[in-house]
Description:
CATH architecture: 2-Layer Sandwich
Strand content: 35-45%
Number of strands: 6
CATH superfamily: 6-pyruvoyl tetrahydropterin synthase/QueD
Helix content: 25-40%
Order of helices and strands: EEHEHEHEE
Number of domains: 1
Shape: elongated
Strand order of the largest sheet: 4-3-1-2-5-6
Radius of gyration: 16 Å
CATH topology: Tetrahydropterin Synthase, Chain A
Structural class: alpha/beta
Amino acid sequence: MHAITKTIPFCYGHRLLDYAGKCRHLHGHNGLLEVDVEADALDQRGMVMDFSKVSRLVKGWVDEHLDHKMVLCKRDPLVKVLAKAGEPLYLMDENPTAENLAQHIYEQARNLGIQATEVRLWETPTSYARYRPS
């Protein structure tokens, strides 16, 4: 089995609903995304996949949708206020936890044609969430 990992840094803000801790308040992260792609055999170039393709597609999606955006749950009461103020938002059906974001990004990568096997989202230098389908 061969594997590659592409890392993608980005900045985002969020807050968690139905949470009693300090993350219930608006705050930001310097996130680091890791996207794994595996293959049983290498292609004719000797690659699992070109790193630049993963970057172009997944980093392109992250840059357009998540980077420097406030990532909120659609039912967050601040959505209307922040939208009215012109703040850039990315809305999710679920609470924007690191776990939910990792799964969401994994699904977006797959929709873009990247056969990702796992996604890890480092929310801080010491804490990450990962998603790999069972």
